[in-house]
């Protein structure tokens, strides 16, 4: 019981601000706008943020280990395109098509993440340079395989399975919450989670402590790629299609913003998986409110960019104090 209390205090100390901000934002929006507190609107918010939210969970591990992944959005597009195209291998069998799409999405995501992991963990190339390059490669491949257009499927089972709701909670949102619980335990209670933070805190000291730093980094990028593939599978089922040019666009920005807002240190060494979920929801609510106020979608990226800058400044102020 004492350990639970200590963990709760540590969690609130690292990312308590995002929970307070989320609670205040919810209260203000609920009072000021009757439509906002409509259960259907709240359900829509959780569904809309779930795709980038799942990616943000993987990004938490990458950033906690001192890395960055700019390629997750493009990898989502590539995994989504190939997963839908793979359905053509099993015409007339919706269940088999669904299984093929799922396996392909996860496989492509894992492969793309592994490439990043090898280049960062084994070749020791700067993560920013690696993922900036693979971001372009993965997006180009997605455009090539889809002829720079949209790929779609008529598999109704796919759409039904990924769009179902349970007590108004969509499947993608439910997956996001369950993964948050799972990865919270992984980060706090497993050797892998401790090693991730150790590598991000001080890689040289971690290496002296016999922690396989290259392998740990590889696994974080592999995990990020795997979750990008899972998000691609769920996103493809939403409209039974994937846009090679638009799918996953700026998802890396959304994920990074949510992770930093949630209390994970941008320089690595400290992470909060529940904080990431809170950051995802906070950004989703902000976008929803901006829509209700009639603010152009083209300006919403400005808000996210400012949020990232402010969150990083707050982290550095805390570090200096």
UniProtKB/TrEMBL annotation:
GO cellular component, one term: plasma membrane
Keyword vocabulary terms for this entry: Cell membrane, Membrane, Transmembrane, Transmembrane helix
Pfam families per UniProt: BPD_transp_2
Cross-referenced InterPro entries: ABC_transp_permease
GO MF term set: transmembrane transporter activity
CDD domains in the cross-refs: TM_PBP1_transp_AraH_like
Membrane topology, from the record: Multi-pass membrane protein
Originating organism: Victivallis vadensis
Transmembrane spans: 12-32, 53-86, 98-121, 128-146, 166-186, 220-237, 299-316
Domain of life: Bacteria
Localisation per UniProt entry: Cell membrane
Protein name: ABC transporter permease
């Amino acid at each position: 019981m004492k350990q639970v209390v200590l963990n709760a205090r540590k969690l609130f100390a690292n990312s308590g601000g995002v929970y307070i901000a989320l609670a205040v934002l919810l209260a203000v929006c609920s009072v000021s706008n009757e439509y906002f507190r409509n259960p259907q609107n709240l359900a829509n918010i959780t569904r809309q943020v779930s795709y980038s939210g799942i990616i943000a969970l993987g990004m938490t591990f990458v950033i906690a280990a001192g890395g960055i992944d700019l390629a997750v959005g493009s990898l989502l597009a590539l995994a989504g395109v190939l997963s839908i195209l793979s359905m053509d291998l099993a015409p007339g069998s919706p269940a088999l098509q669904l299984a093929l799409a799922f396996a392909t999405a996860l496989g492509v995501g894992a492969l793309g993440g592994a490439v990043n992991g090898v280049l960062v963990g084994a070749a020791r190339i700067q993560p920013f340079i690696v993922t900036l390059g693979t971001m372009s490669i993965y997006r180009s491949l997605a455009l090539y395989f889809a002829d720079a257009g949209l790929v779609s499927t008529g598999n109704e089972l796919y759409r039904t399975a990924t769009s179902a709701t349970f007590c108004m909670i969509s499947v993608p949102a439910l997956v996001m919450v369950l993964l948050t619980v799972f990865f919270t335990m992984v980060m706090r209670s497993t050797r892998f989670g401790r090693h991730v933070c150790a590598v991000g805190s001080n890689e040289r000291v971690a290496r002296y402590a016999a922690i396989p730093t290259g392998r740990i980094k590889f696994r974080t990028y592999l995990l990020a790629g795997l979750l990008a593939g899972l998000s691609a599978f769920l996103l493809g089922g939403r409209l039974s299609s994937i846009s090679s040019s638009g799918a996953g666009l700026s998802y890396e920005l959304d994920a990074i913003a949510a992770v930093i807002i949630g209390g994970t240190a941008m320089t690595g060494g400290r992470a909060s998986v529940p904080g990431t979920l809170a950051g995802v929801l906070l950004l989703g609510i902000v976008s929803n409110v901006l829509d209700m106020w009639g603010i152009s979608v083209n300006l919403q990226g400005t808000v996210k960019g400012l949020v990232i800058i402010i969150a990083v400044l707050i982290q550095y102020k805390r570090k200096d104090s």
